[in-house]
C-alpha cells in the first residue's frame, strides 16, 4: 500500500469542500457562521479560539456554543485565555471535552466545578509561550478562530493595536493545513496595514458588533495606598538604583503602578533619570504616561494594547513600536521573549511559601499562570552582560560553588504581607498542593518557582534571597519580611537579625528611607484625570474610569 504524505492537505480540501457544499465562500455572512462551523469542524478536532488577555474572538466562540453537539463534539480546545462564559458553555454541552490553556481569570471557579464533574479533561495549564510553542509541535490546531479589526475583499486582515496572539495562532494553523476563520469588525476597501495575508485566511466573518476587548491594564492612581508608595520607594532605592536596572518588565497591579508613578518625582530626586527604567516590555499602562513624558521611559514593546491609549501611542512613535500606518503592532510572543531577556521582572502574587514558591491558584479556583512564569524566570540562555545581571550573578550563592562566572536575572515578588480580607500572603504550604490533589494534576500549579525568585519586597523590607547560602537561611529571610502573618511571627529573631547585619534583609531605615515621607504626594498623577492632563489630552480613558 502506498503511504499518503498529504493527509492534512486532503483533510483541508474536504473541510473547504464541505463549506462550499453549504454555499459558503470566503466571505461568510454572520447569520451563516454556525453553518460554517458545523461544516468545517469534525468530532475530536483540535481547535484554537483566540482569547487573549484583552482581545477575544467572542462572536465565533458564541456561535461554537450553539452548534449541534450531535455533529460537532469532543473538541480539544487549545486556548490561551478563557475569560467569557461561552468558553466553558461548550464543555457543558459536550461540544468540547479536553482543554489546554494558560489563564482562566473570572472563569476559574466555574472551571474547577466542571473539572470536578468530569466535563473537562485538562491536558495541562501552560504559560503563554509554552502553549504558543506547542502550536508548532504537538498541539497544532486543525481549526482556529481569530479576531481582527478589519478585512478587505480578498481577506487580508488588519489586527490594529491589539495584534496580540494572532500571528502565532494563524501561522501555527495555516502552515499545517489548518482552517483559519477570522471574525472582523468591518469590511473595508483597503486595510491600513496587512497583518495577516489573505492567503493564510480561509474564511472571513463580519461580526454583528466589534470584538470584545477588556482594559485590564488600567489602574486608577486614586486607589494607590501609601504602603504601596513605601514599597515602591524601597524597590527604586534598594533594587533599581544599585543594580542599575534599565531594561525590565513590570507586572500589572497597583504595586507596580506606584513605582511607575514615582519615577518622575522620587526617582528623579535621587538623580536616577537616564540610569534606570529606560526600556520596558509591558502593555501600554496609562500609569506609565508621566514617566514617558518626564523622559524616564524611552522605549516600550507591548504584548497588547490598552483601550483609550491609542492616540497617545500614535503620537509617541519614538517610544512604541508603530507600523507605517501609524498604529501600534503589539505581539505577545515577541514581548514575552523580550521580557525573558531583560534584567528584571517584578510582579505580585497571592501566596508565597517558605522556599519562595508563589502561586495565584488558590482553593477551588484554577486561574492559571498567563505570562508571569516566562517573564519571572531565570534566563539561562542569556549570554550578553549588563551591570545588574553581572552584580546579581556575583552575589548569588550558587555562583560561589563554581569557578565559571555567571550573570543572573532579578526576579522580584512585590507583595503586602496581607492581601484582601486579611488573608496572609505568606503561608507554610501553598494551596497549590491541595489543588493538585483535588484536580488530579501531575504537579502543583506553581506560578514562579522559588529558585527563580531573587527578591521579595514587602512593607517590612527587602529579602535578598539569591544571597542566602542554605534553604534554612532562605526560610528565615522570607519569615523576616512576612510581618505579622503566622509565617512572620514564627521567625527566629536572632537569625533574622543576623541576616539583616549581612544585608540580606533590608528595612526601610537601612535604605535611609523615612516611612513618614511615603505619602501619595509622591505620585506624579493622583487620578485618572491627572493622567489625561499628563498626556496632553491624548489619553481617552473608558467611561468606567471617568468620574468627571
Automatic annotation (TrEMBL):
One Pfam family, short name: Mal_decarbox_Al
GO molecular-function term, one example from the UniProt record: transferase activity
Domain of life according to the entry: Bacteria
TM regions (residue ranges): none
NCBIfam families: mdcA
Name of the protein in its database record: Alpha subunit of malonate decarboxylase
Amino acid at each position: 500500500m502506498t503511504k499518503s504524505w498529504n493527509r492534512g492537505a486532503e483533510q483541508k480540501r474536504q473541510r473547504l469542500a464541505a463549506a462550499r457544499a453549504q454555499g459558503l465562500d470566503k466571505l461568510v455572512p454572520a447569520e451563516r457562521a454556525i453553518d460554517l462551523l458545523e461544516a468545517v469542524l469534525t468530532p475530536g478536532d483540535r481547535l484554537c479560539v483566540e482569547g487573549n488577555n484583552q482581545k477575544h474572538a467572542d462572536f465565533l466562540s458564541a456561535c461554537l456554543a450553539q452548534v449541534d453537539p450531535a455533529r460537532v463534539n469532543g473538541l480539544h480546545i487549545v486556548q490561551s485565555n478563557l475569560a467569557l462564559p461561552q468558553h466553558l458553555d461548550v464543555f457543558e454541552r459536550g461540544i468540547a471535552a479536553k482543554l489546554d490553556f494558560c489563564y482562566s481569570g473570572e472563569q476559574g471557579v466555574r472551571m474547577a466545578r466542571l473539572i470536578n464533574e468530569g466535563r473537562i479533561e485538562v491536558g495541562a495549564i501552560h504559560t503563554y509561550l509554552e502553549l504558543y510553542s506547542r502550536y508548532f509541535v504537538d498541539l497544532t490546531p486543525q481549526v482556529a478562530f481569530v479576531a481582527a479589526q478589519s478585512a478587505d475583499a480578498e481577506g487580508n486582515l488588519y489586527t490594529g493595536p491589539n495584534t496580540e496572539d494572532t500571528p502565532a495562532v494563524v501561522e501555527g494553523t495555516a502552515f499545517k493545513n489548518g482552517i483559519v476563520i477570522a471574525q472582523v469588525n468591518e469590511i473595508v476597501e483597503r486595510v491600513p496595514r496587512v497583518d495577516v495575508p489573505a492567503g493564510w485566511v480561509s474564511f472571513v466573518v463580519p461580526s454583528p458588533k466589534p470584538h470584545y476587548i477588556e482594559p485590564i491594564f488600567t489602574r486608577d492612581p486614586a486607589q494607590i495606598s501609601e504602603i504601596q508608595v513605601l514599597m515602591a520607594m524601597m524597590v527604586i532605592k534598594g533594587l533599581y538604583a544599585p543594580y542599575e536596572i534599565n531594561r525590565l518588565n513590570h507586572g500589572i497591579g497597583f504595586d507596580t503602578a506606584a513605582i511607575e508613578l514615582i519615577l518622575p518625582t522620587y526617582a528623579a530626586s535621587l538623580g536616577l533619570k537616564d540610569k534606570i527604567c529606560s526600556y520596558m516590555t509591558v502593555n501600554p499602562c496609562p500609569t506609565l504616561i508621566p514617566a514617558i513624558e518626564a523622559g524616564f521611559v524611552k522605549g516600550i514593546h507591548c504584548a497588547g494594547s490598552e483601550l483609550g491609549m491609542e492616540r497617545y501611542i500614535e503620537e509617541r512613535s519614538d517610544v512604541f513600536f508603530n507600523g507605517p500606518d501609524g498604529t501600534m503592532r503589539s505581539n505577545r510572543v515577541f514581548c514575552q521573549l523580550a521580557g525573558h531577556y531583560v534584567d528584571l521582572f517584578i510582579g505580585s502574587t497571592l501566596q508565597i511559601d517558605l522556599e519562595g514558591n508563589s502561586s495565584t491558584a488558590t482553593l477551588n479556583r484554577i486561574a492559571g499562570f498567563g505570562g508571569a512564569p516566562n517573564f519571572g524566570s531565570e534566563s539561562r540562555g542569556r549570554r550578553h552582560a549588563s551591570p545588574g545581571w553581572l552584580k546579581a550573578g556575583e552575589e548569588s550563592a550558587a555562583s560561589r560553588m563554581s569557578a565559571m562566572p555567571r550573570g543572573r536575572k532579578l526576579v522580584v515578588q512585590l507583595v503586602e504581607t496581607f492581601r484582601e480580607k486579611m488573608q496572609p500572603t505568606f503561608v507554610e504550604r501553598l494551596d497549590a498542593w491541595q489543588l493538585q490533589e483535588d484536580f488530579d494534576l501531575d504537579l502543583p500549579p506553581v506560578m514562579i518557582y522559588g529558585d527563580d525568585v531573587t527578591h521579595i519586597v514587602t512593607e517590612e523590607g527587602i529579602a535578598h534571597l539569591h544571597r542566602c547560602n542554605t534553604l534554612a537561611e532562605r526560610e528565615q529571610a522570607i519569615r523576616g519580611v512576612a510581618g505579622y502573618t503566622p509565617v512572620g511571627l514564627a521567625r527566629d529573631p536572632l537569625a533574622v537579625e543576623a541576616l539583616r547585619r549581612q544585608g540580606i534583609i533590608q528595612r526601610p531605615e537601612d535604605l535611609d528611607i523615612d516611612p513618614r515621607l511615603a505619602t501619595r504626594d509622591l505620585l506624579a498623577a493622583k487620578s485618572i484625570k491627572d493622567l489625561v492632563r499628563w498626556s496632553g489630552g491624548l489619553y481617552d480613558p473608558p467611561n468606567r474610569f471617568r468620574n468627571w
